[in-house]
Protein: Amino acid/amide ABC transporter ATP-binding protein 1, HAAT family
Organism: Noviherbaspirillum suwonense
Amino acid sequence: MTSPSLETRDLTIRFGGHVAVNAVSCAYQAGTLTAIVGPNGAGKTTYFNLISGQLKPSAGSVLLDGRDISALPASARCHAGLGRAFQLTSLFPGLTVMENVRLALQSRKRLGLDLWHVWSDHKDLVARADAVLESVALAGRRDTVAALLPHGDQRKLEVGLLMALDPVVYMFDEPTAGMSVDEVPVILDLIRMLKKDRSKTILLVEHKMDVVRELADRIIVLHNGTLMADGEPEAVIASPVVQQAYLGMAAVEEAA
Ligand SMILES: Nc1ncnc2c1ncn2[C@@H]1O[C@H](COP(=O)(O)OP(=O)(O)OP(=O)(O)O)[C@@H](O)[C@H]1O
Ligand SMILES: [Mg+2]
């Protein structure tokens, strides 16, 4: 049994009297994509915020490669290898695609944010930036200003920036939300590609059960902040708690 790359122990947060995440203990192994499902308000995003350091827990801890990172701020967790995709908030809209990737690589190497001076001294970064742009299929857009990219390409760039940071753990919170039907497969392809790297640990919050079914090696279910189910996708999907949550959401989507 390999040691987990990421683990939460009794992770808990209370907002006033409401327990949004309730003593969630779960370990995640490298080479595994774990889907986190559950109805709206179940605590999925809050759980991510606790792991990435956007929120401080009321109790419990977060471990990365066996090291307790609970006391670290979000930026230090990012440097330690926790990679979280934030919808478009990590893009510099006024800079080109290539400049955005450069900045992500420089921050990874702690080279500061001087775009021009640093870059000419680090040819290895140029090669790495090219490789990142290739892998997210944006090589042809390298000189386009990020704000002028179509929405789907902006989302690809966001995944590219995450890849540039080369995290140990990738966290995606509804990565296809708000995307058009032709944009969704692009993001799913990127996640499939990341999955092939068996050294990575991927956490995916996703409501679309067909996506979960295809991508997940394991599913955990959050319900009212509590871990309700954890296991092989088919078994978890067939469980009454998921059936109820999924049917509930389908009804909401139909009504919308
Ligand atoms: N900063 C906050 N202050 C107070 N309550 C909060 C805060 N953040 C989240 N909550 C509450 O915690 C609960 C869990 O919310 P969360 O956003 O984690 O759910 P979710 O599972 O991500 O839902 P969705 O599927 O709709 O994205 C909700 O009741 C929410 O209102
Ligand atoms: Mg959420």
Q: What stands out?
A: The radius of gyration is 19 Å. The mean pLDDT is 88. The longest helix spans residues 240-255.
